[in-house]
């Protein structure tokens, strides 16, 4: 049934519907769909932004479980005159997925492969499936979907269709539009229509096709005169499917496919139900040549010659990106292998095909070409797949690496994908660099040199004069694009930052044709209004995430005295040199905490599911709330007063932070450096100060205080594990899951049964170190010393057998503690006191260069992380420099020829699970390195994220289910699949999870090594 034309919606997309309409819509959605209905302020706030500079609070959010939920939502939204905004990963860089609408998040449930025809190389998918996940399912068939965008780990196919995504290898495979065979989509009146080849369309689709064809015929001269002739053009609608203007035709045989009209439409014409895609065969071989250039201009000028060699990709990384990558510990080793000296830019040139032999010849021709261009010996050859993959990961992280600049000024997306013919690329980039300089800024260049689309983002402060400079730069850049006959919108779409430029690019006649298409398909303006048709001004400050003082509601920060030191983020950066001011000078009234939170650029890198750590709670729930990005957005909104008074210490914020397991995966994996584990400590300190600590908090935090008393009455404390009724009572009173066995107290702890002959005094260890003799101080933590003392004795045996003089610290009552348990409960002052005492005890030895060796990753690495931001000063820095995990120490000593010990051969497979903190600090590879000192040992790393325990997290009844979900994602299945293997895990929590979940004993590496000493 067609809607009443009188029910026309204003297509501004920025004016929120009435509260009454939203409330009524929420009630009906809750009653009539199976999906999650999220209309509270924090949930809406998490969907108010994408990876752009914009923020618009949505009317509400629906996370549908089925296609029927979507159809129902469209009908209800039409009834209540609330716009509809489809969303996938929310990674759009131009504001396409922000709007005052009902956001429908397809990414959680609508992610199935509906049909796969291997012979025909075609697949039909739901819009919420992520590209990497699709390709993982296609790989066993030797196929892939080749539109390989850099956000492939989080980009959904529906979002890629909405943007007409391109990817690094478009020179070989084309854009999204070239690889879509069909689509099924709902129109705003509720009818579901199949879009495909014109010859096979149904009545409704045929009528749309006829309308578009008539427009194309009438406007043929305008199309020929105004339409960009480059392949990278995504502005407006694809009216030219009936009159091709692209250098790569939409179809191989010149036929028309109406599904292509929806590609690049940004969800403004219809709501995608499914997509049918053309697949390609996976290349059997690839080689990579990394060309190093002395000047940026030389790289740009060479691109036009390199593409003639037939590469599958030619990607740029400029000097700024190189330097930022070298500063990132996750990327530095990879980048160093690609460099010759200190180049101004590098081009990644890939050749792919069936056989390696011909590809190596192409690589040789690249070397010869560079010699002909006056750049001999400029190519680093990478024929190995592993090295190629690592370097491509750095390139794919380019946007996020670029956004890691601290301070209020950030690289801003608005002209980052202008496309020009390749022969003009060098001239265009030179001219645009001069434009940046005139406006007191500079840009960082990267991406698709093969097709004349270089991503560049000038550094602007959108809180001050950024909008005015953005407008001026855009106008000058537009003039250059017109001069070189390019496209102003080349890849990332129009959205809010380029929508107003559509008419500039295409002229009023074609713009009216676009309006006519929108009117024909969505006459009530239901879908994503304010995009492509009637967009707002790109510099409307009211729409900015960081609204300037001139905006109706300027961005501000609520004053706050942090408990941790965030001054490193409280800086400003020079937009030309990118040099930052001294820590603490940035003017942040939260001491830098808010600025650290604001480092999240919403690109969604944390939504990935690969072998990295980040983000385990999202992997388990797939909820935006339980994502590093979701938490950062909620914190930012609270710290800026946008969620109301007291939001920062509210129950809603506690719910948001609750499933953060403090794994530190984001500390390493987030390219912009969002450290949510540390942010949770900061939040908990403020929340607990307001609401108080529970009895469970006290029991967990003060474990180091009562451990020794408990060990003397271990039988009493262990009754809970033996008497089921006590476990049930403990769950009721303390919230500790009855399904878990708690760590067993013991009377024979390391401290209760000392062997003074094994350790020497601190003075002797210091003297030994100063004289060059092998020595170390063993930091015995609460967990290994009190619960698994055999690990300590094993480490002592290994180190003494290798000739090391050992010392261990103690004190009159109890033992020294790093403060980790206190931090986990938000007791930062208490943690500081414990860590401070530990630092004081270790300082004399650290100053003498004595290595500090620890067994428990979370405890030892506290000395290299949180201890440095608790106000302990230079002493903590000195201790941190000497703090090493057991395997880190042995690996270092072995490399230097100091650790020499004979071991018996390994007789079983060795499976290694890395503790999250080991992964975050790059301390997993030393484990494998040390295990290889054992004859016949071939250690295998379990590709796992967090084990799910995370200290006390997994013991809590409220978290037991999600804890097990995290473990079952990869860790526990891998353990069960290898029943005869020795499982190694350094983390106390990890060992307990494996014991509970797989009924297998996992051992510390020290125990294995001690058992095999010859």
TrEMBL record:
Limits of the 4Fe-4S ferredoxin-type domain: 650-680
Coiled coil: none
Cofactor(s) listed in the protein's UniProt record: FAD
InterPro entries in the record: 4Fe4S_Fe-S-bd, 4Fe4S_Fe_S_CS, Cys_rich_dom, FAD-bd_oxidored_4_C, FAD-bd_PCMH, FAD-bd_PCMH-like_sf, FAD-bd_PCMH_sub2, FAD-linked_Oxase-like_C
Superkingdom, natural source: Bacteria
UniProt keywords, alphabetically: FAD, Flavoprotein, Iron, Iron-sulfur, Metal-binding, Oxidoreductase
Pfam family, one: CCG
Gene3D superfamilies: 3.30.465.10, 3.30.70.2740, Vanillyl-alcohol Oxidase, Chain A, domain 4 (1.10.45.10)
Domain FAD-binding PCMH-type: 54-282
Protein known as: FAD-binding and (Fe-S)-binding domain-containing protein
Organism: Variovorax defluvii
């Amino acid at each position: 049934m067609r809607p009443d034309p009188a029910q026309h919606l204003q297509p501004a997309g920025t004016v929120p519907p009435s509260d009454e309409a939203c409330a009524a819509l929420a009630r009906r959605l809750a009653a009539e769909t199976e999906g999650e209905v999220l209309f509270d302020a924090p949930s809406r706030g998490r969907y108010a932004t994408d990876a752009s500079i914009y923020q618009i609070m949505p009317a509400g959010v629906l996370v549908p479980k089925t296609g029927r939920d979507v159809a129902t939502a469209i009908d209800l939204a039409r009834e209540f005159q609330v716009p509809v905004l489809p969303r996938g990963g929310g990674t759009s860089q131009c504001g396409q997925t922000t709007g005052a609408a009902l956001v429908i998040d397809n990414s959680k449930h609508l992610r199935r492969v509906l049909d796969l025809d291997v012979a025909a190389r075609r697949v039909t998918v739901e819009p919420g499936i992520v590209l990497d996940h699709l390709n993982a399912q296609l790989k066993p068939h030797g196929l892939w979907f080749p539109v390989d965008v850099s956000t492939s780990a989080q980009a959904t196919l529906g979002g890629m269709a909405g943007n007409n995504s391109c990817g690094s290898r478009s020179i070989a495979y084309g854009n999204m539009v070239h690889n879509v065979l069909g689509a099924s989509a709902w129109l705003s009146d509720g009818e579901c229509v199949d879009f495909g080849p014109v010859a096979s369309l149904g009545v409704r689709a045929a009528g749309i096709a006829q309308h578009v064809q008539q427009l194309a015929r009438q406007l043929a001269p305008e199309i020929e005169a105004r339409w960009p002739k480059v392949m990278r053009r995504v502005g407006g609608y694809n009216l030219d499917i009936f009159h091709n203007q692209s250098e790569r035709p939409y179809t191989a045989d010149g036929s028309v496919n109406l599904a292509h009209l929806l590609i690049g439409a940004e969800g403004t014409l219809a709501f995608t139900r499914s997509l049918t895609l053309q697949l390609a065969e996976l290349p059997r071989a690839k080689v990579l040549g990394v060309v190093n250039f002395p000047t940026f201009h030389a790289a740009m000028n060479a691109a036009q010659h390199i593409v003639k060699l037939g590469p599958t990709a030619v990607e740029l990384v400029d000097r700024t990106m190189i330097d930022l990558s070298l500063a990132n510990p996750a990327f530095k080793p990879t980048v160093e292998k690609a460099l010759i000296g200190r180049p101004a830019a590098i081009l990644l040139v890939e050749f792919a095909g069936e056989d390696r032999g011909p590809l190596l010849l192409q690589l040789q021709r690249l070397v010869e070409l560079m010699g002909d261009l006056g750049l001999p010996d400029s190519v680093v050859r990478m024929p190995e797949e592993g090295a190629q993959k690592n370097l491509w990961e750095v390139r794919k992280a380019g946007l996020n690496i670029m956004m890691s600049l601290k301070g209020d000024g950030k690289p801003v997306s608005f002209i980052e994908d202008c496309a020009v013919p390749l022969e003009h690329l060098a001239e265009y980039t030179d001219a645009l660099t001069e434009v940046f300089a005139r406006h007191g800024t500079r840009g960082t260049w990267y991406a698709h040199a093969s097709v004349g689309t270089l991503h560049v983002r000038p550094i602007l402060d959108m809180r001050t004069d950024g909008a005015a400079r953005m407008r001026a730069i855009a106008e000058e850049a537009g003039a250059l694009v017109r001069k070189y006959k390019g496209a102003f919108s080349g890849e990332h779409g129009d959205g809010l930052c380029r929508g107003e430029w559509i008419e500039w690019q295409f002229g009023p006649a074609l713009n009216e044709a676009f309006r006519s298409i929108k009117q024909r398909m969505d006459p009530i303006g239901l879908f994503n209004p304010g995009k492509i048709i009637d967009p707002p001004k790109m510099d409307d400050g009211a729409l900015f995430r960081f609204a300037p003082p001139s905006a109706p509601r300027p961005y501000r920060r609520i004053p706050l005295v942090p408990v941790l030191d965030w001054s490193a983020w409280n800086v400003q950066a020079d937009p030309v040199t990118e040099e930052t001011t001294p820590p603490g000078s940035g003017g942040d009234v939260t001491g830098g905490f808010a600025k650290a939170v604001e480092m999240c650029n919403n690109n969604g890198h944390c939504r990935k599911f690969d072998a990295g750590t980040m983000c385990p709670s999202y992997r388990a729930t797939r909820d935006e709330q339980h994502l590093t990005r979701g938490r950062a957005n909620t914190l930012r909104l609270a710290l800026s007063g946008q969620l109301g008074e007291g939001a920062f210490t509210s129950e809603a914020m506690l719910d948001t932070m609750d499933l953060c397991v403090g794994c530190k995966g984001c500390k390493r994996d987030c390219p912009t450096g969002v450290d949510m584990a540390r942010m949770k400590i900061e939040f908990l300190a403020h929340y607990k100060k307001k609401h108080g600590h529970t009895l469970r908090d006290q029991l967990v935090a003060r474990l180091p205080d009562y451990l020794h008393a408990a060990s003397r009455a271990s039988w009493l404390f262990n009754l809970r594990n033996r008497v089921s009724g006590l476990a049930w009572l403990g769950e009721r009173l303390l919230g500790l899951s009855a399904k878990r066995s708690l760590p067993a107290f013991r009377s024979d702890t390391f401290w209760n049964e000392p062997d003074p002959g094994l350790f020497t005094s601190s003075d002797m260890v210091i003297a030994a170190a100063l004289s060059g003799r092998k020595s170390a101080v063993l930091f015995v933590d609460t967990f290994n010393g009190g619960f698994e003392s055999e690990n300590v004795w094993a480490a002592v045996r290994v180190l003494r057998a290798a000739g090391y003089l050992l010392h261990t610290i103690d004190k009159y009552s109890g033992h020294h503690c790093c403060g980790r348990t206190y931090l986990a409960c938000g007791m930062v002052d208490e943690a500081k006191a414990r860590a401070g005492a530990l630092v004081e005890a270790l300082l004399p030895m650290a100053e003498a260069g004595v290595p500090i060796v620890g067994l428990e990753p979370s405890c030892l690495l506290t000395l290299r992380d949180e201890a440095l931001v608790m106000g302990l000063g230079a002493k903590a820095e000195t201790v941190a420099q000497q703090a090493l995990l057991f395997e880190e120490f042995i690996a270092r000593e072995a490399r230097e020829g100091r650790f020499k010990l004979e071991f018996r051969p390994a007789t079983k497979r060795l499976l290694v699970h890395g503790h999250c903190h080991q992964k975050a600090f790059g301390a997993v590879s030393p484990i494998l390195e040390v295990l290889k000192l054992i004859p016949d040992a071939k250690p295998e790393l379990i590709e796992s994220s967090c084990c799910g325990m995370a200290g006390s997290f997994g013991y809590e009844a409220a978290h037991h289910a999600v804890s097990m979900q995290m473990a079952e994602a990869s860790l526990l299945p891998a353990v069960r699949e290898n029943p005869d293997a020795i499982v190694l895990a350094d983390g106390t929590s990890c060992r307990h999870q494996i014991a509970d979940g797989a009924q297998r004993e996992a051992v510390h590496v020290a125990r294995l090594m001690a058992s095999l000493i010859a």
